[in-house]
Amino acid sequence: MSHITKEAHGGSLLAQSARTKKRNAAETRFKAFGIAAIAVSLLMLFVLVTTIIGKGWGAYQQTFITLQVELLEKKLDKKGNRNLSDIKKVSTFGYAPLIKSAVTAKVEELGVETGLKSKQLVGLLSKGAAAQLRDFVINNPDRIGDTVEFRFLASSRVDGYLKGRVHRESIDNDKNISPAQLDLVDALVLAGVVEKTFNIDFIIGADASDQRPEAAGMGVAMLGSLSMMMVVLALSLPIGVGASIYLEEFAPKNWLTDIIEVNISNLAAVPSIVFGILGLAVFINYMHLPMSAPLVGGLVLTLMTLPTIIISTRAALSAVPSSIRDAALGIGASRMQAVFHHVLPLAAPGILTGTIIGLAQALGETAPLLLIGMVGFIASNAPDTIAEGLMSPNSAMPAQIYEWAKRADPAFYERAWGGIILLLLFLVTMNTVAVILRRRFERRW
Amino acid sequence: MNDMTLLERKVETQDIKIEARNVQVHYGNTHAIKDVNVKIEDKTVTAFIGPSGCGKSTFLRCMNRMNDTIQACKVSGNILLDGEDIYDKRVDPVQLRAKVGMVFQKPNPFPKSIYDNVAYGPKIHGLYNTKSELDEIVETALRRAAIWDEVKDRLNAPGTGLSGGQQQRLCIARAVATAPEVLLMDEPCSALDPIATAQVEELIDELRQGFSVVIVTHSMQQAARVSQRTAFFHLGNLVEFGETGHVFTNPQDARTESYITGRIG
After folding, report:
1. Which CATH number fits domain A219-441: 3.40.50.300, 1.10.3720.10, 3.40.120.10, 2.60.40.10?
2. Which of A127, A140, A219, A108 lies closest to A176, judged by CA?
3. Mutate to test the interface with A, among B124, B160, B167 (most CBs of A within 10 A)
4. Range with the largest mean pLDDT of A85-94, A206-215, A236-245
5. Is B190 an interface residue toward A (CB < 8 Å)?
6. Helix/strand/coil for A394
7. CA distances (Å), B230 to each of A218, B35, B44, B201, B248, in order?
8. Of the partner residues A252, A321, A331, the one whose CB lies closest to the CB of residue B120
9. Start and end of every ABC transmembrane type-1 domain (chain A) (predicted)?
10. Given 3.40.50.2000, 2.30.110.10, 3.40.50.2300, 3.40.50.300, which CATH number is that of B41-64+90-260?
11. Are A193 and A106 in contact (CB under 8 A)?
């Protein structure tokens, strides 16, 4: 007879026993926890995305003021010979009166009584307006003497007023803008002189000084990031994959390779700022590579990305069944042929995914860039060549965002959020590419 | 054992293809093969039988140095292929494996087309000059592996899409395509159904015309059906080696008798 003394499975199958009820309740509880956790994270994600878009959207719109400017010959080309070197002698300071008179003329034309001084009138425009005018004249000297229509960037306060960032109540202590100026803006809006349009310059333009947040853009920092990613990809993919293939397929398994393996895993967990200070010590102080250069940034990020790529590549290689290696070796392929003809193609999707995730990680990295001087530098021009892009000082997207976020003017704060949208778009794109590559190249064996 | 039909096979005296002398294999501290001496004849099917873990697969893998890939494995003694020691320092195992092909327990076609599976060996060994020569090699190999008629219309289909038995025959074709002199088969039918097994067994008998075949098998019936010579391994020792008919009907060793009558293993 049975040695089980308790009644084991007594009772009807139609009624749940106490133990079954308890087990089912535990399972239900666990499922509820899981659903709750997912719901909370989805909520967080939603809040995050809506906040970022809500705050950053302003950066993608910019306010412009259209004015007719008379390009007076006696101010811009006193000799009247259209000699470019003479024209270039007139600094932006010399263009200021033209803008002043253009604004004044517009206000008079509209018939608005403002009581504002001309300096305050010009204050509606960006401080870069005179430079914009000068660039136009230098490029088109034949237009001197004409009256030309210009779209000037509005100053950041005017821009903020139209975007709802600056309120009449909030400007009591603001010496950059007054209620009278805002009245004038309202009048200009009614007259159709002020318009808010999509801000392509934010995506392709360069960073601007503290005085001109309305002109700041991400474009050059994006080129900096791109140059760094090229360096990271060109170095970390071949080195990382090569090292992984050697370690996984060729290296003898002994205490030395064990130590190397442990240390690669440890490197993956080293804080990125440590790599930054290493880069400062080795690449800049010892090797005398240029400060703030994307080449150095790329080298530092390569150090950081290598462990990620090595670990994921080794995982992908060891996931290839050994029967494939046996098959190749069994018909007389050399080890290298077995690896490169059969194992590597099968591991490729995993390697690609690991690489792209490593790159995405590197793209968002800020801390090491602090130490090699890629933060706080304003690159006012886009580099002309790839070599210049690698060697000349630049910033990177996350560093640029950090730079904007710490500036005093709230207009920069908006730019920082806008920059985060761009950065996230980059990361989402890269991760999507990783998923697509994985789907496309994944083969079964 | 009733269904076992033992034919009185005439075993002709053949040239010795492989000769093992005092072979010892150690896996770390485990002594896996103990002093094995065996002579494998050309154009003969030799079966290795024995209970699980007796070392028959290990010994098979010694014969084309596939054990080199296992670090803990140490082989001593001599294995001579046509009188040359394959464990000599001057021997490149890659060159050896081109001469001594291997078919594995689990069908392991490359995840490539049927054609590429068979063509891979000739490609890496440079066995052809023109594309049409390669086509011919592939067709011959597939025919010898008795799978040509089933796949001739879909040579570009993936080899992994075939059924298990077809995959194993494809693997045999792949091994045959490199023109080996010896074909080692490690339980080639253990993952196959009876019909596929019968096809592969028939094929092994055909292949005997061209090579010396060594087959490791769990199934004594299979050994009896396909082989001319049988070696019985037990706990790392080669207990008995002789003509298949003799080993099965008139075993000399008590352990062999116990195994073939089903008392051990």
Report:
1. 1.10.3720.10
2. A127
3. B124
4. A236-245
5. no
6. coil
7. 78, 18, 11, 15, 9
8. A331
9. 222-434
10. 3.40.50.300
11. yes
* Crossing angle of the two packed helices A344-363 and A219-245, in degrees rounded to 10: 140
- Cβ separation B120–A324 shorter than 8 A: no
Q: Which of residues 21-40 of B touch A (CB under 8 A)?
A: none
User: Considering only CB atoms, which chain B residues are within 8 Å of A339?
Assistant: none
- Alpha-carbon dihedral B161, B164, B169, B172, rounded to 10 degrees: 100
Please report the ipTM that was assigned to this predicted complex: 0.86
Q: What percent of chain A has pLDDT over 90?
A: 37
10 Å Cβ neighbour count for A107? 21
A334: contact with B, CB 8 A cutoff: yes
Distance (Å, whole) CA B21 – CA B29: 22
Kindly list the strands in the beta sheet with B45-49, ordered across the sheet, starting from the edge strand earlier in the chain.
B100-103, B182-186, B212-216, B45-49, B229-234, B237-243
pLDDT of residue B167: 93
Buried b (16+ CB within 10 A) or exposed e, A65-89: bebebebeeebbbeeeeeeeeebee
DSSP category for residue A289: P
Say whether B160 and A444 touch across the interface (CB within 8 A): yes
Beta bridge partners of B26: B31, B74
DSSP states along A349-369: HHHHHHHHHHHHHHHT--HHH
Query: Mutating which of B108, B116, B172 best tests the A interface, going by the most A Cβ atoms within 10 A?
Result: B108
Which stretch of DSSP H or E encloses residue A422?
A: helix A410-441
Question: Backbone phi, then psi, for B84, in 5-degree steps?
Answer: -105, 135
DSSP tag of A169: G
Q: Which residue has the tokens 């239900």?
A: A28
CA distances in angstroms from B136 to A275, B143, B148, B173, listed in the order given? 58, 10, 12, 13
CA nearest to A399, candidates A426, A431, A381, A372: A372
A326 → closest Cβ in B108, B111, B178: B108
Substitution target from B97, B106, B112, B125 for chain A, most A beta carbons within 10 A: B97
Do the bridges between strand B73-81 and strand B84-85 make them parallel or antiparallel, or are there none, so unpaired? Answer: antiparallel
Full-model pTM: 0.82
Position A325 pLDDT exceeds 60: yes
A234 pLDDT higher than 90: yes
**Domain ranges in chain A with CATH number 1.10.3720.10:** 219-441
Q: What is the mean pLDDT of residues A59-82?
A: 84
